[in-house]
Design goal:
mainly beta; OB fold (Dihydrolipoamide Acetyltransferase, E2P); 2 domains; 5-stranded antiparallel sheet
């Protein structure tokens, strides 16, 4: 069922609040996981952001009787000024993309974003390809280092970047071809991908 109400209070540390509505006498507890469209954010003592809704905020929300039939459960809540969902959330899991913003009155907020509204990711320029040798391989950890003149000090790589199926491995002094890019990975200044064995050591 869809109703309108007002946030009576919000406990940011607990991640929940209370909605007052004429449709639910006495109010109903609402979880931060139910917020849609927009939420305000505050800093927690550990520096992480916590989100919620402001006391006094008019909200629209979807609710239903809980499984016991003696209480209520809010599935979705959003500020009245926002366009909310056309139907309530179903299931135990819902994912969403949220982006930080600043409201017109200067309040820090998070806004729910439809991934289809994001601009396309620009194409990534092709990586450079080199031929080099394996200088380190740690089979028990599934990673190693390949080196070419273009990657002084070596390029870190993972077994999943080696061409082939299943768990792949390299051997010290093997000649390989690989794509590489500047990166800070486990103390190395380069990272290698699409590693192909040229000949066995």
């Amino acid at each position: 069922m869809r109703s309108t109400g007002t946030i009576r209070s919000w406990d940011f540390e607990e991640g929940q609040g209370i909605i007052d509505s004429s449709d639910i006498p006495g109010g109903v507890v609402v979880s931060g996981w139910s917020i849609r469209c927009e939420a305000i954010t505050v800093d927690s003592p550990d520096g992480m952001g916590m989100h919620g809704l402001e006391a006094g905020e008019p909200v629209d929300f979807y609710w239903r009787r809980d499984d016991d039939g003696d209480g209520y459960e809010v599935t979705d809540v959003w500020p009245c000024r926002c366009d909310g969902p056309d139907s309530p959330s179903t299931g135990a899991f819902r994912s969403a993309l949220w982006m930080s913003a600043t409201r017109e009155d200067g309040v820090a907020i998070m806004r729910e974003v439809d991934p289809n509204d994001l601009p396309p990711v620009p194409p990534r320029p092709p990586l450079r390809r080199s031929t080099g040798v394996v200088v380190v391989w740690r089979p028990e950890e599934g990673w190693g280092v390949v080196e070419a003149p273009e990657t002084p000090g070596g390029a870190w790589t993972h077994f999943s970047e080696i061409r082939g199926d299943g768990y792949r491995s390299l051997v010290r002094d093997q000649r390989v071809e690989f794509d590489w890019e500047p990166a800070h990975q486990d103390g190395y200044s380069f990272r290698a991908s699409d590693v192909a064995v040229v000949d066995q050591a």
